[in-house]
Amino acid sequence: MVGTTNRTSGQGNLARENGVEDGWGKVADAFRATFDANHGVAGAACCVYVNGRRVVDLWDGLADQQVNRPWDENTIVQVASTTKGATAICAHILAARGELDLDAPVVQYWPEFGNAGKERIPVRWLLSHQAGLPVVDGPLTFEQACEWDPVIRALEAQPPLWQPGTEHTYHGVTFGFLVGEVVRRISGKSLGTFFADEVAAPLGLRAWIGLPEEQEQHVARIEYAAPFSLEELLAGMAEASGLDKDTVTAWVTSAWGPDSVQMRAGSLGGALDNAADPASAYYTTRAWRAAEFPAANGIADAHSVARMYAATVSEVDGVRLLDPATVERATAVQTDKSRMHGLPPELNIPANRSFNMSLGFWRDCPPMPMAGPGSFGHPGSGGSIGFAVPDAGVGFGYVTNLWNFRPDDPRASSLAEAVRSCLG
Question: What gap in Å lies between CA 367 and CA 139, rounded to an integer?
Fold first, then answer.
């Protein structure tokens, strides 16, 4: 077992020797490099498990620049859509127990869902973003969204945007409500409570979907990387996907334009409309952190993210969350069977160059290589990511409070590359 990393007192005081086992120094080197001026990390942490053993556990920088608070072993941070991986794990725990049939219609567990042409949607289309429900028509207030049930009632009432199963697009916020409600109907527990009882407690994680108030003192303050131009965005997407610039431009224009489904999806019917103003944005509030948005508002440290994923592919201190057969089913790519929604008919964007989604997890692909073939996990807007590598027994977690929305953000990708190098 690796020793606990020493506390740090700010950038430039990386405690490497006590946080890295022999043979894993390349990850520490890559982590240190993320603090260079070119990458501009305020604070961050990285952790790696291999076959149930922690081999890397590093943190550095500032949890709050305004008060010069250093990042330490108790620091936790919002991980945005990295939360979706935790939510998917909860669903697959129920599937492994035989309590959830992924091919059964959602109405088998949630009868009210079957309105407006949704009666035949199977659970797997919720997990694979193919249900046609990325947008809530609303109107909803932020307070209503935090209550859960108003969002559920809206999703029950509205029709899909496309024939379910024929297209896919990222269900950025609704994913958590859709999958979370199925988990709640089966288990009798909210998604956050189920995660706390069935994942976090057995593994001793410092991770929450719905943060207890006593943990507020440990939350890192979000900072923002420098803005970038549309040209930089397109160049970054072309580099990450391996697609030519003309194709990427047509993709972004059609699928991510001002009135596109993707842009409307983040609003949640108006409830989350103030995201553009960091000074008053919903995600800076205690109400947001206390509520359960199982697609977007998880709060954790890197050690917990890595330990959670490690327990999906190996035993960790006597705990294994998913058996190998469940992992194989859960990680079979689904979005290669449908078209991306919103594209013009002549434009085809392959799933393995854009959205290589299985049942709740990204799969390895050029835009999301993780640690190579077999990897599965989920990134979060801003830069965090968690993933596992089944054959190598790897669990990986990276979290940061410097949010960078560039598609070619080098921080987590450089760390994942170092993991691949260490594995040989």
Answer: 34
The number of helix segments (H) and strand segments (E) in the chain equals: 15, 14
Say which residue the tokens 């054959």 belong to.
Answer: 391
Rounded distance, CA 384 to CA 402, Å? 10
Residue closest to 181 by CA, chosen among 168, 190, 171, 172:
190
H-helix segments, 6-65? 25-33
Q: What is the pLDDT of residues 395-405, one digit of tens each?
A: 999 999 999 88
Inter-helix orientation angle 302-313/83-96, to 10°: 30
Side chain identity at 4, as an amino acid letter? T
The pTM of the full predicted model, rounded to 2 decimals, is 0.94
Strand, coil or helix: 53: strand
| Chain segment 223-247, per-residue pLDDT in tens | 988 888 989 999 999 999 999 999 9
Report CA-CA distances (Å) from 120 to 26, 104, 172, 191, 241.
49, 9, 22, 23, 33
d(CA 151, CA 65): 35
Residue entry with tokens 């160049």: 235
* C-alpha to C-alpha distance for 287 and 420, rounded to whole angstroms: 39
Q: 319: exposed, middle or buried (C-beta count within 10 Å: 0-12, 13-18, 19+)?
A: middle
The secondary structure of 360-422 as a DSSP string is SSEE-BTTB-TTSTT-EEEE-TTS-EEEEEGGGTEEEEEEESEE---TT-HHHHHHHHHHHHH
State how far the Cα of 175 lies from the Cα of 144, in Å rounded to an integer: 17
207 membership: H or E segment, kind and range:
strand 207-208
Is residue 95 classed as helix, strand or coil in its secondary structure? Answer: helix
Find how far residue 365's CA is from the centre of its chain: 16
Is the Cβ–Cβ distance between 140 and 154 less than 8 Å? yes
Angle between helices 410-423 and 25-33 (to 10 degrees): 170
Using DSSP's 3-state secondary structure scheme, residue 218 falls into helix
8 A C-beta contact, residue 220 and residue 71: yes
